[in-house]
Amino acid sequence: VSGVSESEGPEGSAEGAEQGRRRPLFHLNLSRGGEEEGLGERLAQQFSQQWASLRSERRPDPPPQITSGPSNFSRAQVPWGVDLAAAWTWRLIVISAAAVAVGWLLREFSLATVPLAIALLLAALAHPLVEALQRVGLPRSLSSLVVLVLGVGGVGLMLFFVGQQAANGAADLADQVVAGLGKIRQWIREEPLAVSDSQLDAWIKDAQRSISEAAQPAGVLNSVTNVGVALSNVGAGLFIVLFALYFFMADGDRIWSWVVRLAPRAGRQQIDSSGRVAWVSLKQYVRATVIVAIVDALGIALVASLLGVPLVAAIGVLVFLGAFVPMVGAPVAGAVA
Predict the structure, then answer these.
(1) pLDDT score at 28
(2) Helix-then-strand count for the chain, H and E
(3) CA separation (Å) from 250 to 128, 244, 254, 276?
(4) 62: pLDDT confidence band, cut at 50, 70 and 90?
(5) What phi-psi label fits residue 42: left (phi over 0), alpha (psi between -120 and 50 degrees) or beta?
(6) Distance of CA 289 to the CA centre of its chain
(7) Backbone torsions φ then ψ of 31, nearest 5 degrees
(8) Are 248 and 120 in contact (CB under 8 A)?
(9) Which of 43, 92, 137, 237 is deepest in the core (most CB within 10 A)?
C-alpha cells in the first residue's frame, strides 16, 4: 500500500510540509520493535476504512420518501328519506328477529309459560278480593290463601254441578242424541248435499272400521299413552297455576321489584311506571271479561230455556267458565249446547 500524508512536519515549516507530502502512508521499520505491534492495528483500521468507503459507493440510492395527507374519501351522499328508511329497516329486522326468538322460546317452554300467564290473569282478577281482606285486618299471605281456597272451591262446585246435571239427564240426552243424529242424516240426504244412502253407509262403515282399529291392543296402548301424557301435562300445568297464583297474590310487589332491578338503573323508573299502568289495564280487562262472561251465561241460559234445551243451568255454567278462555271457550260451550 502506498500513499502520502498531506502534512506530517512541523507547523509553518516548508521543509516539514515537503517531507510530509513525500512520507509513505504506512511506514514499516523493522529495526524498531515497538512499532511491530501497532502495524497490524493500523493495517486493520485502514482496511476497514477502505471497505466502508467501497460499500458506501456500491450502496444504491435510498427509496423515495412516502408522504401522507388528509383522506380523500368522503361519505356517500344519499337522500335523507333513503337514509331514514334504511335505518328503520335494519332496526325492524332486528326487532322482528328478537320477537321470533322470544316466541320460539315461549312455545318450546309452553308447559311453564302458559300456566304462568293464566296465573297472572287470575291474580289480576283476585287482587281486589285480597285487598278487601287486608282492609279487614288479615295479613296479605293469609288473605291470598283464603282467596285461593275459595276460588278453587267455587270452580270445583260449578264443575260438580254441571256433572251432576249431566248425569241426571243422561237418559234424556241419549234419546235426544239419537233423534238429533236421525235429523242430521235426513238433512244430509236432502238438498243441497243430496248424499245417497250408499255413500252415507260407506262413511259410517269407514268410521266403524277406524273405531275398531283404534280398539286393537296397539291402538289402545297408543291412545292410553297419549291420554296419560295429556293428563300429566294438565296436572303439572294446574299445579304451576295454583303455585304461581298464590305467590303472585302474596308477594306480587316484591316479585315486580326484583324484575325491575334487572333493568339498567337509568330506566328503572320508567319501567316501573309502565308496568304499574299495564297492571291496572290488565285488572280492568279481567273485570270486563267477568262482566261479559256473566252476560253471556245469563243470555244463553235464557234463550236455551225458551227453546226447550235441557240442562239449561249446566250450559249457563259452561258458558260462564268458557268465556275466560279466549277464542276457544265460547265455541266449545256452544258445541255442548
Answers:
(1) 45
(2) 11, 0
(3) 13, 10, 9, 17
(4) low
(5) alpha
(6) 29
(7) -75, -20
(8) yes
(9) 237
